[in-house]
Amino acid sequence: MKPPLNVLLIHGAWAGSWVWDELQPRLQALGYATCAVDLPGNGQDQTPPEQVNLDLYLQHLQAQIGRASSATSNVAPWVVIAHSGAGVIATALAEAMPERIAGLVYIAGMMLPSGMGFAELIRRLQHQHPQVAGIGPYLLWNTAHTLSRVPPIAAREIFFQDMNDESAMAAAVRLSAQPESGRALVAEWSAERAGRIPRLYIEATLDRSVVLPLQRAMQELVPGAHIESLISGHAPQVSMPDAVIQALEPFLHGLAPELGAFPLKMCGHEK
């Protein structure tokens, strides 16, 4: 019998663990133990922006996995579900600890070749697909260009346009400032470590941020992922969590068909 799975949920830029509020209880109802975190410098985490980088993200996530597992003697493997820019972080985490990671899920995520940043992919496609600029032209920057914010109206139109206005604005105003050192990320990974882990890519066909040509290009550049397609905007886990569960369930069940929930403690910003 395969062991049950733990699920680590990683938010994208400007967001926080709150983007998983609708998906998390649905996963738990299926028997999966879940852990949604605020990355350093995001959500409720108060890490100074100048300290934020990929190494700090990885240290934080590895510590969360260690604490959540040891708190309940839970040695089950982990599936990492990453949204948007967190795809780079998920890949790097899998490279760092492939023995603990059973699967990777990218939701409209940045699933990039080793050594490639998302900005490079945008440069490759921007002549043919001008819309790849996404949220970039709308960002508000500090003087040093090290911290950016998304205006709520822009967030509603680019991230949450498939939701009603009230729900979209409620999500938009929860976005926080994003350190650029935690956004312009590049993961170095190998076929022997991160590359051997099963992957699922959930594409969002109406995405105005990581637009569909970018998503399809990444699927071609890093082949081998199972693909599910949702008619949704950039954040389907917020706008249509039931559809995300339907896309996730066959992949998760294939990794661990025999389930039993383990309560996870010391997860995210909880004490």
UniProtKB/TrEMBL annotation:
Alphabetic keyword roster: Hydrolase
Domain AB hydrolase-1 stretches: 7-247
SUPFAM superfamilies membership: alpha/beta-Hydrolases
Classification via InterPro entries: AB_hydrolase_1, AB_hydrolase_fold, Sec-Metab_Biosynth_Hydrolase
GO terms assigned for molecular function: hydrolase activity
One Pfam family, short name: Abhydrolase_6
PANTHER family documented for this protein: AB HYDROLASE-1 DOMAIN-CONTAINING PROTEIN-RELATED, ESTERASE_LIPASE_THIOESTERASE DOMAIN-CONTAINING PROTEIN
The protein's name in its UniProt record: Alpha/beta fold hydrolase
Record organism: Thalassolituus pacificus
